[in-house]
Recover the amino acids of this structure.
């Protein structure tokens, strides 16, 4: 069985713990690799390599860092299909979607190429007589990223592009379910001229995660994953004196007003609900219809679902691939039993698809549940799969209240032709990312990604301007050059006049 190891100090190295985990092809259900699980010794080696590389990388000129980021951008663009193929083989999402993932990561590299501009500070001449004040932003040191299985290329790039461009050295702990893309990125970064030790990969499970959170030489941690783990990451990391941004789960609503275009709504719901088999933190998982439009919308979605081609991710005719593991697939499918048991109605049951019935890949076809209420498990839980729940509200106010009472606040969408209603929705809805007639409002790279409430622990959103601030510390310098003629002894508090 082929092994997937670590990448430390510019070299591929095997793990020393002797512990390993399986990596599957979700389309066939077959194990394809074993991945090494790091122990504290492996992590210490990665931290030592990052610490050794930090002084030289921090001292590297902004123009040289920008040049390397430009080279990474060119290589990643030229090889995005190669990266995507590794991603599809271990995650299962269709190749076109995997290429799209790499492309969205590429946008963040493009943003990071502007690092000479992004790190410009401010300067105030003559703040006091003969005194100037200026601000600089400096890297924090060795930082780490703990990333999820659903975006094994994009999310690491979200983190490391800004972190590295700012002058930090980086340790990535990818998901053990699809670790292959992390090593492809490592090789690509090295080919682009990134010095050894600036980017390192430590594979593993909770042992590696807790080691990162407790290691005294790691200054900051970025995380994307479920809310319970995000809370653990935040509380443990901050208790150990680290900066932490921990992005958690979601229950993204798509609110449909009576004046919305039904065909547009149905197309968006199918695309955003079932893309990547629903394994997206920005997937639409709840469709909230206002007024009498619900029946028409549900019928339109049900008409489109049979046209979604479910199959292996490498099949160019497939629109949706399998889920990441058999256990996860079975958990997602269980809501098709608990839903009707609690009073909901299954409109489309993905278990009727032939690929679900065969005992091979981890497939579940698109499913639709209507008449879901906030008391049901299908509404309360983050399903993270191709099961779309439909709720019905009589008024706009009830729909907004439903969204705002939900403990998650990652993303939300509103479909309407009414500009006034859209503006009011943006004003009062409690979510970090809002789409108006856009079902998946993932911000472009020069804004920042992040939710509210239990979808985010910490103060900083990811990438964009907030990413630059997270991976740097501000330093304000107040300076005056010697002028013996004006020098006096003054024990009073410094004044600016």
């Amino acid at each position: 069985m082929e092994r997937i190891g670590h990448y430390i100090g510019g070299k591929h190295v095997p793990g020393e713990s002797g512990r390993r985990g399986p990596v599957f092809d979700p389309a066939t259900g077959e194990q394809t690799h074993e991945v090494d699980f790091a122990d504290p010794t492996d992590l210490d080696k990665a931290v030592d390599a990052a610490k050794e590389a930090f002084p030289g990388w921090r001292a590297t000129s902004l123009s040289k860092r920008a040049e390397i980021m430009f080279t990474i951008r060119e290589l990643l663009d030229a090889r995005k299909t190669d990266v995507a193929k590794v991603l599809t083989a271990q995650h299962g999402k269709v190749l076109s979607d995997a290429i799209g993932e790499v492309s969205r990561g590429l946008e963040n590299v493009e943003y990071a190429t502007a690092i000479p501009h992004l790190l410009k500070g401010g300067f105030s001449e003559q703040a006091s007589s003969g005194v100037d004040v200026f601000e600089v932003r400096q890297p924090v040191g060795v930082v780490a990223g703990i990333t999820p299985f659903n975006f094994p290329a994009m999310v690491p790039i979200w983190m490391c592009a800004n972190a590295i461009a700012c002058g930090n050295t980086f340790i990535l702990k990818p998901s053990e379910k699809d670790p292959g893309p992390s090593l492809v990125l490592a090789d690509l970064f090295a080919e682009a001229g990134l010095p050894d030790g600036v980017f390192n990969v430590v594979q593993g499970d909770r042992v590696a995660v807790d080691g990162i959170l407790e290691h005294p030489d790691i200054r900051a941690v970025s995380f994307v994953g479920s809310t319970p783990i995000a809370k653990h990451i935040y509380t443990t990391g901050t208790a150990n004196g680290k900066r932490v941004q921990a992005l958690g789960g979601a229950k993204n609503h798509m609110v449909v007003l009576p004046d919305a275009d039904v065909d547009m709504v149905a197309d968006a719901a199918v695309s955003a609900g079932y893309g990547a088999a629903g394994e997206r933190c920005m997937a639409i998982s709840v469709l909230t219809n206002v007024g009498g439009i619900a029946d028409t919308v549900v019928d339109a979605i049900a008409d489109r679902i049979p046209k979604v081609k479910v199959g292996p991710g490498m099949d160019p005719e497939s629109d949706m691939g399998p889920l990441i593991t058999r256990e996860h697939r079975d958990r997602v499918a269980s809501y098709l039993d608990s839903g009707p048991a609690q009073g909901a109605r299954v409109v489309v049951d993905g278990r009727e698809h032939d690929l679900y019935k065969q005992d091979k890949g981890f497939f579940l076809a698109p499913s639709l549940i209507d008449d879901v209420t906030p008391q049901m498990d299908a509404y309360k839980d983050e399903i993270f799969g191709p099961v779309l729940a439909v709720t019905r509200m009589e008024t706009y106010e009830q729909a907004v209240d439903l969204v705002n009472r939900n403990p998650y606040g990652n993303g939300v969408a509103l479909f309407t032709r009414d500009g006034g209603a859209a503006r009011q929705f943006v004003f009062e809805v409690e979510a970090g990312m809002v789409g108006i007639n856009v079902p998946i409002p993932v911000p472009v790279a020069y804004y920042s990604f992040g939710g509210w409430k239990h979808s985010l622990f910490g103060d900083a959103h990811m990438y964009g301007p907030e990413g630059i601030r997270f991976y740097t510390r501000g330093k304000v310098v107040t300076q005056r050059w010697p002028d013996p003629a004006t020098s006096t002894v003054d024990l009073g508090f410094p004044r600016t006049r």
User: Anything to note?
Assistant: The mean pLDDT is 97.
